[in-house]
Amino acid sequence: MVKTFGVIGGGQLARMMITPAQQLGFEIKVLAESEDSSAQLAASQVGDYTDLDTVRKFAETVDVITFDHEHVPIRILEALETEGFNVQPSSKALTFAQNKLLMRERLAELGLPMPRWKAVRSIQEISDFLAEVGGSAVLKTPTGGYDGKGVMFLTDASQATGWFEQFEVLLVEEKVEFVRELAQLSARSVSGEWLSWPVVQTVQKNGVCSEVLSPAPNADLEQAANIARAIAQGLSVTGVLAVEMFETADGRLLINELAMRPHNSGHFSIEGSITSQFEQHLRAVADLPLGAISPTKNFAVMLNLLGVDESNHFVEHFDKALTVSGAHVHTYGKSARKGRKMGHITALSDQSLAEAMDIALAAKQALHA
Fold first, then answer.
1. Do 170 and 224 belong together in one domain?
2. In this structure, what are the phi and psi dihedrals at residue 20, rounded to the nearest 5 degrees?
3. Helix 91-98 to helix 74-82 angle, to the nearest 10 degrees?
4. pLDDT tens across 73-105, in order?
5. Is residue 269 within a helix (H) or strand (E), and if so which, with residue range?
6. Is there a single domain that holds both residue 215 and residue 362?
7. Rounded to an integer, what distance in angstroms lies between the CA atom of residue 137 and that of residue 118?
8. Could you give the CA distance from residue 30 to residue 193 in angstroms, rounded to a whole number?
9. Of 42, 106, 204, 351, which has the fewest beta carbons less than 10 angstroms from its beta carbon?
């Protein structure tokens, strides 16, 4: 039986796993990248997650390995699994989260809805694809991209000059004319139990999530949940799975990206759901019964606190934010930097999303004072 969780990565997701692990009666240890990591309260080891000996040493101290991010090299995870360590989600599943080309190929095999896409190996192939999709496309690196990095919008193939110097093959996708972006969170246990939260609407600014509305207004909840279930089962995902999707004007949902870990779009669940995504992830990877996902109130709004400069840590005016009734403020203990995810605010309402948004914005304004 799992008694100790080991989380690779010392970011805010690991930080937010600490409390639910303790509430469940488990010990949690973190392999952090630095002494001053966001999850330093549980950092039992500081080291390089790309070094097998370092990760093996950490794995020897815990019962199950899980993740704050998807960047641990697959070769290291495969080596751990060969040696008998419990890795959740497995290297086979994480391959699809790390490599967007492999993800597209597997989702195509499962017959799931996606934008038109193609693996390209030359400028000419990009040019041919642009002609096929009407002149606008999105170029992506197969690995390493997140929060807008490793992504370029194209109208001319020559814009990709230089990209093939680092990658032999790239992924190019049609630029989808969508009306909004959605995210479907679910969790699947080692033994196959599966549950999903209602699909949420996400609002992006400069390639980074800014707002989350739960549930997404007028969304097809069943369609979104069915897509997530098919992915979780088809890719043998364990733990929390986030499926980011585009919704088109005619109501179609097209899969954009996957994350196999707690996700920014699910932070609202800490206060907004009977079982948060962080507790659910731990339950799932330990193969415990999954917790109820019913909302605590009808509506929830989450606002990211993105760094505004090199000095505002969003704690200087914490007392002012605490005067906003109904606002829940989380800070991540990070050094200040413009554009960095420094924390988030959640607000709930039984009346409307608009009321929850007003509460969250009032708290955010106080923190920016």
1. no
2. -65, -35
3. 180
4. 999 999 999 999 999 999 999 999 999 999 999
5. helix 269-272
6. yes
7. 11
8. 26
9. 351
What tokens appear for 260 in the block?
Answer: 């196999």
Whether the pTM exceeds 0.90: the reply is: yes
Confidence class for position 317, pLDDT limits 50, 70, 90: confident
Strand intervals (E) in the chain: 4-8, 27-32, 43-46, 64-67, 117-120, 137-140, 151-154, 170-174, 178-188, 194-196, 200-205, 208-214, 239-248, 253-259, 299-306, 327-331, 341-349
Assess contact for 143 and 169: CB atoms under 8 A. no
**Alpha carbon distance 183, 199 (integer Å):** 6
Cβ count within 10 A of residue 186:
27
Q: What is the Cα–Cα distance from 359 to 355, expressed in whole angstroms?
A: 6
Q: What is the pLDDT of residues 247-282, one digit of tens each?
A: 999 999 999 999 999 999 999 999 999 999 999 999
In whole angstroms, give the CA distance from residue 168 to residue 134. 25
Q: Is 127 domain-assigned?
A: yes
Which is it for the CA torsion 69, 74, 75, 76, positive or negative?
Answer: positive
